[in-house]
TrEMBL record:
<dbReference type="GO" id="GO:0016705">
    <property type="term" value="F:oxidoreductase activity, acting on paired donors, with incorporation or reduction of molecular oxygen"/>
</dbReference>
<dbReference type="GO" id="GO:0004497">
    <property type="term" value="F:monooxygenase activity"/>
</dbReference>
<keyword id="KW-0472">Membrane</keyword>
<feature type="binding site" description="axial binding residue">
    <location>
        <position position="210"/>
    </location>
    <ligand>
        <name>heme</name>
    </ligand>
</feature>
<dbReference type="Pfam" id="PF00067">
    <property type="entry name" value="p450"/>
</dbReference>
<dbReference type="InterPro" id="IPR017972">
    <property type="entry name" value="Cyt_P450_CS"/>
</dbReference>
<dbReference type="InterPro" id="IPR050665">
    <property type="entry name" value="Cytochrome_P450_Monooxygen"/>
</dbReference>
<dbReference type="GO" id="GO:0016020">
    <property type="term" value="C:membrane"/>
</dbReference>
<keyword id="KW-1133">Transmembrane helix</keyword>
<dbReference type="GO" id="GO:0020037">
    <property type="term" value="F:heme binding"/>
</dbReference>
<dbReference type="InterPro" id="IPR002401">
    <property type="entry name" value="Cyt_P450_E_grp-I"/>
</dbReference>
<keyword id="KW-0408">Iron</keyword>
<keyword id="KW-0349">Heme</keyword>
<keyword id="KW-0479">Metal-binding</keyword>
<protein>
    <recommendedName>
        <fullName>Cytochrome P450</fullName>
    </recommendedName>
</protein>
<keyword id="KW-0503">Monooxygenase</keyword>
<dbReference type="GO" id="GO:0005506">
    <property type="term" value="F:iron ion binding"/>
</dbReference>
Length: 262
């Protein structure tokens, strides 16, 4: 009941935002492309103009896309950042290394896109955090036609569960130190860290891989760069480690940190 109510409120909020965009487009005579919704509406309009209206998305479909992007993008990235902050508060040596890299790459300049792409240590840290605490811990698939999977032939309608977290924590795949935080595993990239096996896939894999994967990493790097250059942080004694899975893997009572201005 409550879920339906919230969904109703969310849909009417989004419908209002979409309506406003349509009014703005009619007034200005052109589509803005300054955010994802505008880009979506613009490409939808182009699609319908070129191929006919039945090839475009309905308003309800646009609303569903907005919801998907918001929920898929917001919670997962904030969880990644929370776990990264927790881990860096425990592993002070890596916090220092990450900060040194941020200063080395950006100096006194504000973080920029090119620099974020050059953050090697920070990227290794984020990969290792995603390995230990993948925001999505299982993926579900339902087979729609008979499929061969290794020595098995699976009929349609079979429900498959891919336990990402178990694979990320598998000692046979990652070695004896699987439970330890060791970003150096990724010093030569994901392919080397995994021996070219599909043993690291926090963003899933294949045709339905997370569409926001590069954006999420960029966002997390930007947030870390901004925080690291201004603050050092330690774990507060009030923190209790309770990873819990509610849609995504999250610290149940939050991450309690103590910040010091640099
Ligand atoms: C650390 C951050 C993120 C993680 C770990 C993550 C992980 C994933 C995973 C595992 C999937 C596939 C789920 C499945 O196949 O069952 C997925 C799908 C998706 N993600 Fe992300 N995601 C993140 C951030 C984002 C961001 C920032 C956006 C958007 C800006 C986004 C948008 C999407 C969308 C739209 C899908 C569905 C794609 C499709 O079905 O084709 N994600 N994500």
């Amino acid at each position: 009941m409550r879920l339906k109510e919230i969904n109703g409120q969310l849909c009417s909020l989004l419908r209002g935002i979409i309506k406003q965009r349509e009014i703005r487009t009619m007034e200005t005579g052109h589509f803005a492309d300054d955010d994802l919704l505008s880009v979506l509406l613009k490409s939808n309009h182009k699609q319908m103009q070129e191929n006919g209206s039945k090839f475009g998305m309905s308003i309800d479909e646009v609303i569903e896309e907005c919801k998907a992007f918001y929920f898929a993008g917001q919670e997962s990235t904030s969880n990644l950042l929370s776990w990264a902050m927790l881990i860096l508060s425990i592993h002070q040596t890596w916090q220092t290394r990450a900060r040194e890299e941020v200063f080395q790459v950006f100096g006194d300049d504000a973080p920029n896109f090119d620099g974020l792409n050059r953050l090697k240590i920070v990227t290794m840290i984020l990969y290792e955090v995603l390995r230990l605490y993948p925001p999505g811990i299982i993926f579900n698939r339902i087979i729609y036609k008979e499929t061969k999977l290794g020595k098995f032939t699976l009929p349609p309608e079979v429900h498959l569960i891919l336990p990402v977290i178990l694979i990320h924590h598998d000692q046979q795949l990652w070695g004896e130190d699987v439970k330890e935080f060791k970003p150096e595993r990724f010093s030569r990239g994901v392919a080397k860290a995994t021996n070219n096996q599909l043993s690291f896939f926090p963003f899933s894999s294949g045709p339905r891989i997370c569409i926001g994967n590069n954006f999420a990493l960029m966002e997390a790097k930007l947030a870390l760069a901004v925080i690291l250059r201004r603050f050092s942080f330690e774990l507060s004694p009030s923190y209790t480690h309770k990873p819990s899975f509610v849609v995504t893997l999250q610290p149940q009572d939050g991450v309690h940190l103590m910040f010091r201005k640099i």
